[in-house]
Write a structure and sequence with these properties.
The longest helix has 18 residues. The chain starts with 11 loop residues before the first helix and ends with a helix. The protein contains five helices and six strands. It has one domain: 3-Layer(bba) Sandwich (FAD/NAD(P)-binding domain), CATH 3.50.50.60.
């Protein structure tokens, strides 16, 4: 884990600005993400010219919640169509989110509420059982695929 030490405290609002784009390779396989490292604003101007940065990976997981930021980058390119999350129906959503969690596109996996937005599933409300099971399912699928 890399920790950025800054004279200014980093605010939560910075995190939403870090992800910028996806890295695509042959056959439109997701091969990483592009970050616009907003926290470098606190660094001297002479060393901030490294922005943006591509972080390549064999698997990318969208766990960005209802925003489904990574999945939406595919939609912006016309590669998939998301349906947006549905109305709250906790009992139904708990099962569906776990069921639909997994690979959305080659190299891209979705878990949690990003799954709801991707497939038009109901919202879960203030329960987190499905979130944890969804994340575990995706982690297991990614590990299996990487072996």
């Amino acid at each position: 884990m890399v920790r950025l030490r800054s004279p200014k405290p980093l605010q939560a609002s910075h995190t939403s600005k870090i992800f910028e784009d996806i890295v695509l390779r042959e056959e439109n396989r997701i091969a990483g993400i592009v970050v616009n490292w907003t926290p470098v604003e606190s660094l001297p101007r002479q060393i901030t010219c490294v922005d943006p940065v591509a972080l390549e990976a064999r698997a990318v997981i969208d766990a960005t919640g209802h925003d489904a930021n990574v999945v939406k980058k595919l939609e912006e390119r016309g590669m998939i169509k998301t349906k947006g999350f549905g109305a709250m129906w906790v009992e139904r959503a708990e099962d569906l989110i776990v069921e639909y969690s997994g690979e959305v596109h080659p190299g891209l996996f979705a878990c949690g509420m990003a799954v709801s937005t991707t497939y038009g599933l109901p919202r879960t409300g203030p329960t987190f059982g499905a979130m944890l099971l969804s994340e575990k399912k995706v982690a297991d699928e990614v590990l299996k695929k990487l072996r």
